[in-house]
Amino acid sequence: MRPAGSSPPSLPRSLLVLCVIGLGLLTAYVLVLAGRKGHHAGGHSAGSPGGQPSQVTSTTVPCVPSVLGVAATTDAKQYRLDQRPELEIQVTNTGEAPCVANLSDSQIELLVYNGWSRVWGSHDCKVKPGDSPVTLAPRQTAGRSIHWSGMSSQPNCAGTRQRVGTGNYTLFARFAGVGGRTAAFSIAQ
Prior knowledge:
Immunoglobulin-like; 2 domains; alpha+beta; single chain; six-stranded mixed β-sheet; elongated; about 35% strand; three-stranded mixed β-sheet
């Protein structure tokens, strides 16, 4: 028989040491996680110019053509000769995950036809430089529009530009060379 004294048995002492060590590790883990969250919330990504936050998250990937729906639209079905039709391209993410579409001028193209005759193209005379990345959630649509002057054009801005006449026209839209739904409109006196 052992006399009862102030010394605790050896098993509880080892459990106490393990608990202290475990508590210390848990505290360190929580502090590290809190530090990471604070860094992401207030920090800027390395690729952001001028310290501005990037629109594109690291998990978002570029949209592949097979998940994009492309459509041409106009703000009206009929215009007068003195009006400037608003022509638009709409790009929709038909996929199941967010992706980034570059809706820059070089990637989008609008074309106007009168029957089989090509009348005007947005890339004929000038293409604006630069990028315009847009993150599209699933089923989300983004668009770019211009007001068409109603003047004809040819590739490389060749020939003389003339005001188009009355008639029925078709607007075609292409994103990165991929076409989609067209829009019909007419011009009257």
